[in-house]
Amino acid sequence: MTKEKITIIGGGMTGLSAAYLAAKDGFEVTLLEGSSKVGGLLNTFEIGGNQLEHYYHHFFTQDAEFHWLLKELNLMDKVVYHKTTMGVFRNGKIYNFNGIVDLLKFRPANLWDKFLWGLSTLYLGKMVKWEDKEHIATLDWFYKYSGKGMTDALWKPMLDIKFGPYADKVPLSWMIGRLAQRLNSRSGGDERLAYIKGSWKVLLDKMVEELTAMGVKIKVNEPVEELIIQDNELKGIKTSKNKYSGGKYLITIPSVYFDKVKNLPQSFGGNGVQYFGAVCTILELKKKFSDIYWMNVADEGYPFGGIIEHTNMIPKEEYNGSHILYLSRYFAMSEDLAGMDAQQIKERMIPPLKRINPEFSEDWIKDVHVFKTNTAATVCDLYFSEKVPQSKTELKNLFVANMAHIYPDERSTNNSIRVAAEACGLMGVKTGHVPYGASLSGKIGFGNNPFEKVS
To answer: Which of 359, 378, 397 delimits the end of a domain?
Structure first.
């Protein structure tokens, strides 16, 4: 027997996962996407004869929810695991940063600071309770317990480049999630990351195929414009093309777009949540830039904070011998980067590469691609849990699950699945078969708040 209707607004990974779970449990599902295709931040483009994500992607060995979905979709044969390397560019020099030996060779800090850094990192990543630390600013804690040398040389530059004007307000709970994720992906000092052979397009294509086979109606180019409300109950919605009525509704779009929906109550969601934008400048190169997969740029004066050399994880042969380099930068909407076009971004991003690798020449470049989004991540500040909306809203039949619910974890495909599962559970969808992994997402807004405000 077909169960009641569920209409999902937003075709990113959270919306797609929710649609899959609901359809699998027999619900009649409609998925509405405002743009021309589903996938959101997971979408890809052609480069070097293959597909590649607009924004760099990998996943972790402990991502239980994502591994579950890949098994459901019979895609595990497409998963490849690779040992990867990290590095730091500091004081004009590249340092490997993969274990205790590399730490000892890191010259920008003294031995005592390195000891404090190692001890505090293990403490945060392995022992401390993230629920108790939301009231503490990460930088304040690092300066107190992790040593001034390592904080100045590593932590502060990394937080500055990621959070900009909000760097001094990042709660320690968020950092605990980051460290736990990275430490748990390591074995014997080596970090193993996973990738989908053929790119995330393989996942998106399979998701659309499976959803269609299960009867899910996928509608693109249909942004929601109005809610139809009667007696504090959501009866239906209007898009730019159609009207939909009956059943429950799940909104998965970023809260910055809520004001575009007519009749959405002011008290609904949002709660002052702000978003960072992100830009990825992707270079297709004739030569390798470095031997490092993930290089954090910790010196001032650089327009990017991360150099991710994708072909130091996935062989260059997958891209007709081209080397693929991401130059990544988050930005606040108040920064000038937010208003730059692709050509301006190229002109800013590419020249500084020669200061990192003096041998680099623009003659190496085969092609350049620029992708920019204004909703890459939420701005997480102190007591951010108070801004996370309740998934079950004050309007009967209306639910929300979006990027805010990923806190205190980091945006990822795995965490989107976890948030979707939590929201579906509130709507009466069976989700007990979705495993719980190491994700810290979906802890807030789904019936209880694990944070207790500490004065």
So the answer is: 378
